Amino acid sequence: MRIGEVSARSGVSARSLRYYEQLGLIGSEREPNGYRRYDDSVVDRAIVIQMLFGMDFPREVVTSVLACTGEAPAAAHDALVVQLARVRDDLSERIRTLTATRDRVDDFLATRGDAAAPA
Fold first, then answer.
1. CA separation (Å) from 15 to 12, 18, 38, 77?
2. Model's pTM, two decimal places?
3. What is the pLDDT of residues 13-72, one digit of tens each?
């Protein structure tokens, strides 16, 4: 199928599909006229890639997740566990930072009276 059909079926923009291909996350064949021709499996793969990038996963983690589909070797799964543990730790740190920032904002608002009370 052509890129427009993959885009329509997956909800992933043609621009993103080209980017995913540039990163080596999906592949296509070229028709004689230069158009890309995608396998049906690219639709599901593109949806997964978009979801992972939407969760701010780095490209390396996205690649590892994709490597763990199907009959992936145990080493691929082990590498993914290590990478996801790092992502979890980074998320935990971001949550701590955001919580501290919110608490400081709450403290500031508390000194300004009821007009700034949380909704």
1. 8, 5, 14, 30
2. 0.69
3. 999 999 999 999 999 999 999 899 999 999 999 999 999 999 888 898 898 888 877 666
Q: Say how far apart CA 64 and CA 80 lie, in whole Å.
A: 6
Burial of 17 (0-12, 13-18, 19+ CB in 10 A): buried
Which has the closest alpha carbon to 50: 77, 86, 24, 20? 20
* All domains of the chain in start order, with CATH: 1-54 (1.10.1660.10), 57-118 (no CATH)
pLDDT in the model for residue 87: 86
d(CA 106, CA 65): 39
